[in-house]
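Re: the multi-chain job from yesterday

Posting the exact lines I submitted so nobody has to dig through the queue logs.
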Amino acid sequence: MNTVRVRFAPSPTGGLHIGGVRTALYNYLFAKKHNGTFIIRTEDTDQTRFVKGAESYIFDALKWLGITADESSEIGGKHAPYRQSERKKMYKQYAEELVEKDFAYYAFDTSEELEEMRKRLEQAKSKNPSYNAITRSTMRNSLTLPEDEVKTLLENGTPYVIRLKMPRKDEIRFQDIIRGWVNVHTATLDDKVIMKSDGMPTYHLANVVDDHLMEISHVIRGEEWLPSAPIHVFLYQCFGWEMPQFAHLPLLLNPDGQGKLSKRKAAEYGFPVFPLDWFEQETSNIIQGFKEAGYLPEAVNNFLALLGWNAGDHQEIFSMEELIEKFSLERVGKAGIKFDINKAKWFNQHYLRQKSDKTLVDYLKNGLKTQNLGENLSDEQAIIICQMMKDRATFPDDFWKEAIYLFKTPDAYNEQAMAKNWNEESKNFVKSYLDFLKNYTGEWHHEPLKHDLHTLVEQSGLKMGKVMPAVRLGLSGVSAGPDLAMIMQIIGKEESIKRLESIILV
RNA sequence: GGUCCGUUAGUGUAGCGGUUAUCACGCUUCCCUUUCACGGAAGAGAUCAUGGGUUCGAUUCCCAUACGGACUACCA
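And the result, structure tokens for all chains:
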């Protein structure tokens, strides 16, 4: 009874949302912390919303983050299958069991009839216009129809659903690990469909049956499920099954706090919501993922873990191992969390700086390849560049993006910087420096270059701040960047001279 | 509308009856640099949503109000 078994239960209806990733992460951390089992169960009972590729996308995304399942449709397990569509046959008997126990009933109402009922109730200004303990007596179901008519209807293959017979006056109480006791009156609940006319169970039934069959000990899911949790509790009671413990996670909200984190708002604020690139069939658009945007998996995990949870001290940097060690549901907050991508960037920068030179060099080289630049960049050279750029990079691409002038001659000069720093005085200095460089015979290395440049400036009687920006502009086209002598060392003598010759012509 | 859940600086948070209300991101200033970044130092920023209680004493406990969010399908 002490074994922890948790599940992440996504439905493959599109790209996995980052909020879903966090739910998966929390489940994973909780399982690992307690030496338990982490299960991924595919909830694909809605055949109309099935999206091709979505399931494998979910697995790929979670694998990228190191959130791997112990049991899933991909790797199997002792409770296979883990795809609800493949468990279809199992649910019916449970629904029938409920009908037999008088906890559920057959309903034959057509969608038109349901629509009519809804209208009628709305006109009557009903407080709770739903199919419930009161209204079911006016509908066509096995509770109102004569027994033989129900039998005939069933035998004739008339489409029907099975609805849960929610008691009229009762109270459902359960304890949520995060929220404490939650009470709901059954009068406010409706007779939920548990078996659809296509023979598939709805989420409510499938979820409870599978959680029971798969011996799930803790149900950790988003707060959007809190309102339906009483239905699930009721279902457990009807079956006479032991209930798992519940933990409803606070939701990830848009940066402006308006609603739960949405694809639309994320695009508006300029950050991803999907872990990996997602190809959206309806629009034929590729929506950029965290990975492709340059986020490191350890940064995403760390960032996500802290969205609603903290260790109680002020530690912010956690490896996956530390998260597993420290995580607890009791320390998950209750309030919704506004998504702040700035913090994610900070984590990214932190983890980027921990990378080995080799990894950094790979980032640089791969990035340059996409730009058809730096074909003959040596590893030696690449390491120097990476170390130089390391402290000013947030994303792997910054290694080449922020130092693009090291790989190609600038085709323009930053206008503002030119206006501020380019004048007769600085131009004359660049000219004299050019003469110096042309006659330079020393080692083309940043140390002597820097030394000589400094003495030259001193001899000229000019201020560093007056002339250096001009040299920098000539060399890089921009006014900010790493040490000038380093830039010259990397681009070489010939190119340095060429660039300075160009700017003089401006 | 109904039901449920929430509310500490711009954001994420600590706090678990007595604190100058913690830390981090972001922001500002200064130092370091030829510049940017890094690093270092300092700083601004919170009537702890509001109003009532309980208490010698409430950010902490209770109630109400306001505001926000979720749900309200034969979707999950």
